[in-house]
């Protein structure tokens, strides 16, 4: 499905979104210089993701410009509010951005790329990145609860710990720690990443846009997304994401899965037909249902949606109106 045409004021359109085709979105960058080299782009590109200088210039430079503008105005609003309250603070709290989307859609690449682009701006050069993988329950606990096969579903996370982390960030705490996840061992580690007074915090994960859950007494609690200043949903057709997932699995079969320390080392010995069948099974039983039931329904909560075409290039952008 493509974007609706962008209508002019007075046309009677009451959509809460502005949707732009790629060419119209790319024009918003103007004559902004290319901030990254191809080598830097290669550093952030994920396995199987297609990303080049042109894609960065046409899609991600305008996005970084938009976010930088909103960071600037958020700072002005913060200072005005502090002045009104007659309690000026020496430093505003970090600007928090959530990035959501399916497994294999390229959200990690988008997040790393945004980190590099936003850090180029001296007004907010201290940019931290945290993935919600670190807030997954340990494998032993997932197994105890019978949730190991539902890893990545909302119930497989320590949602209270994630919420406490985001609240600590937004409260302006000097340093905040987040747990680290290992894709090699497929488990949470004892390591932590420390955030030291960042200007911007990027939080990437499958379910970061989930709404708050209702409590047993009927009251609604807080959600991680309640503390986001901006959010991005990386979108694509389900059939394309499924294909990307299988293709990535086949690449991992020849690389990371060959590592004897890998949790998935057993997949490294599969031939192509067996690996394709295994990847398809994992998608159809776990990742596909999670996308359909939990991740995709949160798309409408995002500030901005990047819709990808079958070749991973962004085809159109949808921005929620202020």
UniProtKB/TrEMBL annotation:
Domain Phosphoribulokinase/uridine kinase: 96-237
A single GO molecular function term of this UniProt record: pantothenate kinase activity
One cellular-component annotation, GO: cytoplasm
PANTHER family, alphabetized: URIDINE KINASE
Keywords, comma-separated and alphabetical: ATP-binding, Coenzyme A biosynthesis, Cytoplasm, Kinase, Nucleotide-binding, Transferase
UniProt binding sites for ATP: 101-108
Gene behind the chain: coaA
Protein name as it appears in the record: Pantothenate kinase
């Amino acid at each position: 499905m493509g974007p609706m045409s962008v209508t002019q004021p007075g046309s009677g359109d009451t959509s809460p979104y502005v949707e732009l085709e790629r060419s119209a979105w790319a024009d918003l960058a103007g004559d902004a210089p290319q901030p990254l080299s191809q080598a830097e782009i290669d550093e952030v590109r994920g396995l199987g993701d297609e990303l080049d200088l042109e894609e960065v210039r046409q899609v991600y430079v305008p996005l970084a410009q938009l976010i930088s503008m909103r960071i600037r105005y958020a700072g002005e609003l913060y200072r005005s509010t502090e002045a009104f309250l007659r309690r000026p603070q020496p430093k505003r709290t970090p600007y928090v951005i959530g990035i959501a989307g399916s497994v294999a859609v390229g959200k990690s690449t988008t997040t790393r790329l945004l980190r590099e682009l936003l850090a180029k701006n001296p007004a907010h050069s201290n940019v931290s990145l945290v993935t919600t993988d670190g807030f997954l329950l340990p494998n032993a606990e997932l197994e105890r609860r019978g949730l190991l096969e539902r890893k990545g579903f909302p119930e497989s996370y320590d949602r209270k710990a994630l919420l406490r982390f985001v609240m600590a960030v937004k409260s302006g705490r000097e340093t905040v720690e987040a747990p680290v996840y290992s894709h090699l061992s497929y488990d949470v580690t004892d390591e932590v990443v420390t955030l030291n007074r960042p200007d911007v915090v990027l939080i990437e994960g499958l379910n970061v846009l989930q709404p708050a859950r209702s409590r047993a007494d009927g009251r609604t609690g807080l959600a991680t997304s309640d503390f986001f200043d901006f959010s991005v949903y990386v979108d694509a057709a389900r059939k394309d994401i499924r294909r990307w997932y299988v293709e990535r699995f086949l690449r991992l079969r020849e690389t990371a899965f060959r590592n004897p320390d890998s949790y998935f080392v057993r997949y490294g010995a599969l031939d192509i037909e067996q690996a394709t069948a295994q990847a398809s099974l994992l998608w159809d039983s776990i990742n596909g249902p999670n996308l359909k039931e939990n991740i995709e329904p949160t798309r409408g909560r995002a500030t901005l949606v990047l819709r990808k075409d079958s070749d991973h290039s962004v085809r159109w952008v949808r921005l929620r109106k202020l």
